Amino acid sequence: MLKSSIIAAFLCVLSISIFAGNPPAKKKDTPTEGIQFFHGTFKEALAKAKKENKLVMMDCYTTWCGPCKYLKSKVFTDKALGEYMNQKFVCVAIDYENGEGPAVAQQYPVEGYPTLYFLDAKGKVKKSVVGVPNPVASAATVLLKEAKKVAQ
Q1: Does the predicted model carry a pTM greater than 0.90?
Q2: How many independent structural domains does the chain possess?
Q3: What is the residue range of 128's domain?
Q4: What is the CATH number for 132?
Q5: Would the pLDDT of 49 be above 70?
Q6: Helix, strand or coil for residue 115?
Q7: Phi, psi (5° rounding) for residue 118?
Q8: Which of 20, 58, 90, 109 has its CA 20 to 30 A from that of 35?
Q9: Is the residue at 83 inside a domain?
Q10: Distances in Å between the alpha carbon of 85 and those of 4, 47, 58?
Q11: Measured between alpha carbons, how far is 104 from 99 in angstroms, rounded to an integer?
């Protein structure tokens, strides 16, 4: 009995020392590349765009939308797209079913998800893109071209 208690104590100490040496991986909430989305309200995003003399790109999404998830994980993380968008636009993502989303949806209705609105700092729509741009494999390149047209 004493032997098994000593062995159990030894295993506990060993497991504690192993886990103490390997801190858990950091959660990656903010990508280091790609579009850096503004964390604030839509109204605050417009004010920031006006102050910084930028345009606004609004990503209208829902949590259940597969193409929305694709944009977020595969397209918005593109380095070249992010560099341009972060320089010229205040990018904001609005969940159209939660938070301020339903109110924003009243002003900016969508035909489908995802919808990207390119707006001036006053909130006037300059261009909208519905769905994932084709060809899907180069959606980031297509969006970059569209953003450059809007920013001219």
Answers
A1: no
A2: 1
A3: 33-151
A4: 3.40.30.10
A5: yes
A6: strand
A7: -105, 120
A8: 109
A9: yes
A10: 62, 17, 11
A11: 10
